Amino acid sequence: MFSFLNIFRVVALLEGVSYSLLLFIATPIKYLADDPQYVKLLGMPHGILFILYIVFAFMLKPEMKWNNKQFGAVLLAAIIPFGTFYIDRKYLKTA
């Protein structure tokens, strides 16, 4: 069913995929092929997903009973490539 946790898991997955595409495909194309089209295409959706990820993390902190170290890891995962996939497996899938 639709719960904040399930929505957060979807947002985390999409944020991780968009970040990976932006970092490993769009940015090299921008600098190697001098074509910023893909960065412009992926930048806005990734930014929105990043903000949603942070907002949902704050909303879920009390429900998930994350301590400060766990919550810091959840927030830090948004800026580390593939970090959201790790968080999903470690903290969200077992909930």
TrEMBL record:
The chain crosses the membrane at residues 6-26, 38-59, 71-87. Keywords: Cell membrane, Membrane, Transmembrane, Transmembrane helix. Pfam families: DUF3817. InterPro entries: DUF3817_TM. It comes from the Bacteria. It is a multi-pass membrane protein. It is found in: Cell membrane. Residues 5-92 form the DUF3817 domain. NCBIfam families: integ_memb_HG. PANTHER family: MEMBRANE PROTEIN, MEMBRANE PROTEIN-RELATED. This is DUF3817 domain-containing protein. It comes from Hyunsoonleella rubra.
